[in-house]
């Protein structure tokens, strides 16, 4: 192959050196040609690169729910680590490596150099593809709901992904045109042109299938969803503590969401896990009883536990590093609060409290319900500020405390005897259309757990009533969805992008002819 006039020999030598992992002089390059096998490996490299891009997208999307994964690993292995950092670092390494190889290959093609990929690169590419394939398989088996999260994310990113793909495929026209004008294989030319044209036509027409609740007029935007603090404000204080409740109040949350258990001597207290090992120092205070269920401890024992220091030691969220000295000191003073203390704090702060009663499969669950109801009725908190989530013995609760607001963890049924007024569901379980229908039926919809601004924006545009969040300090500052486009503006952007792309592709093929 002849060298293009703008491609100097030293540059071509360096590019080929990195790609083929050995120094090839100008004389040796003259005898080298790109074979069918080399073309196959280039196509494999391109496929791996696209595979990595898809995984990068998924990795960013699942960050919203990654704290759940960290908790799951701790429950299984008793090892706490922010696995999101491991995920992001590994993903960054893989995507950087495949991108660098692809850029080298495209530059070599533009310079008219042979594509001789070294066996080491081939091996690493295969291993990279296998690692990502294993990650996708594990995601599908253990964390299948994240596929629905990815579908929802397309409502936030679809218009921008379309522009990105059109731009990327447009840039690909330059090396493609260079290759087509250099090769003498007519069949290969026709095949590549057909594939490229098919992909571009599909991309140009893709907006016809892109739907997003945020494509609307400004005056159609629903009110901002209310914020519910998931176990308080767990990014700013230890979860399910009075400090966490007060931090949530500072974030303007309307509801403090928590979890209630009942001690062996009948005192309801705040705790999410069935064991105390993750959020207290039970292993240091009661090492022989650390593996017992939280309900096996009496209230006197529970009050001896430190419910705050773990937050500084394990740093469940990156925000822990930015705590002030005063907040750090207050964290170390946290103890497991009783439900009575939490109700008093909620009453003084004028916020509602919503809770689950755990564990649901306990043999004494009815006595747990009775003890919890007794504390609520004696606390003096207005009953309309109490949101009751547990399904067990719900009718009994309605009779004893009719003022308590009933929240259901399911969708409404077709022949519902008593209409639902409030539902509490995972954000993956409701579509934008269902949210609109519930809103029209005056049913309050709360979705959990929503941490990322992109997800909050989609649900805001959909018209959700409230969201449960770990990141109340972030969502509090959002005065507007991340993006909102009138349909006419989106149509204009679509036409401009597609026309610019088409003209650029024509220019590339005419210029390199």
Automatic annotation (TrEMBL):
It is found in: Membrane. The chain crosses the membrane at residues 39-63, 83-111, 123-141, 161-181, 190-210, 491-512. GO terms for molecular function: glycerophosphodiester phosphodiesterase activity. One of its GO terms (cellular component) is plasma membrane. One of its GO terms (biological process) is lipid metabolic process. Its main location: membrane. Pfam families: GDPD (PF03009). Keywords: Glycoprotein, Hydrolase, Membrane, Transmembrane, Transmembrane helix. It is a multi-pass membrane protein. Belongs to the glycerophosphoryl diester phosphodiesterase family. This is GDPD2 inositolphosphodiesterase. It comes from Nycticryphes semicollaris. The gene is Gdpd2.
């Amino acid at each position: 192959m002849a060298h293009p006039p703008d491609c100097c020999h030293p540059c071509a030598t360096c590019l080929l050196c990195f790609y083929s992992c050995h120094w090839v002089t100008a004389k040796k390059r003259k005898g080298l040609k790109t074979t069918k096998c080399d073309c196959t490996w280039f196509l494999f490299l391109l496929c791996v690169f696209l595979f990595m891009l898809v995984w990068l997208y998924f990795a960013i999307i699942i960050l919203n729910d990654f704290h759940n994964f960290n908790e799951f690993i701790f429950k299984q292995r008793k090892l706490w680590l922010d696995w999101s950092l491991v995920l992001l670092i590994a993903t960054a390494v893989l995507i950087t490596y495949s991108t660098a190889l692809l850029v080298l290959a495209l530059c070599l093609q533009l310079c008219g150099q042979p594509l001789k990929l070294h066996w080491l690169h081939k091996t690493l590419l295969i291993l990279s593809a296998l690692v990502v394939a294993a990650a996708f398989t594990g995601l599908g088996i253990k964390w299948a709901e994240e596929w629905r999260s990815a579908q929802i994310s397309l409502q936030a990113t679809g218009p921008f992904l379309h522009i990105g793909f059109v731009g990327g495929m447009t840039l690909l026209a330059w090396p493609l045109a260079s290759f087509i004008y250099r090769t003498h294989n007519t069949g290969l030319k026709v095949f590549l042109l057909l594939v490229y044209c098919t992909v571009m036509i599909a991309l140009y027409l893709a907006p016809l299938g892109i739907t997003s609740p945020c494509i609307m007029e400004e005056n159609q935007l629903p009110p901002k969803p209310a914020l519910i603090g998931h176990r308080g404000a767990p990014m700013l204080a230890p979860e399910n503590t009075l400090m966490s409740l007060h931090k949530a109040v500072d974030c303007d949350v309307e509801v403090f969401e928590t979890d209630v258990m009942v001690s062996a001597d009948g005192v309801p207290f705040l705790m999410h896990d069935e064991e105390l090992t993750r959020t207290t120092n039970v292993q240091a205070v009661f090492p022989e009883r650390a593996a017992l269920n939280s309900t096996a401890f009496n209230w006197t024992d529970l009050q001896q536990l430190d419910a705050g220091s773990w937050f500084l030691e394990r740093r469940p969220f990156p925000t822990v590093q930015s705590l002030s000295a005063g907040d750090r000191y207050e964290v170390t003073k946290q103890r497991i609060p009783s439900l009575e203390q939490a109700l008093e704090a909620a009453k003084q702060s004028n916020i509602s409290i919503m809770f689950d009663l755990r564990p649901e499969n306990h043999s004494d669950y009815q006595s747990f319900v009775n003890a919890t109801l007794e504390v609520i009725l004696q606390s003096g908190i207005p009953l309309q500020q109490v949101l009751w989530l547990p399904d067990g013995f719900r009718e009994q609760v309605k009779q004893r405390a009719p003022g308590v607001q009933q929240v259901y963890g399911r969708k409404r049924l077709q022949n519902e005897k008593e209409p639902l007024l409030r539902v509490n569901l995972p954000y993956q379980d409701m579509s934008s259309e269902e949210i609109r229908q519930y809103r029209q039926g005056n049913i309050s919809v709360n979705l959990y757990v929503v941490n990322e601004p992109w997800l909050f924006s989609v649900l805001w545009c959909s018209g959700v009533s409230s969201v449960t969040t770990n990141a109340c300090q972030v969502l509090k500052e959002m005065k507007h969805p991340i993006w909102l486009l009138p349909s006419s503006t989106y149509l204009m952007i679509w036409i401009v992008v597609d026309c610019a792309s088409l003209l650029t592709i024509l220019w590339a093929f005419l210029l390199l002819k």
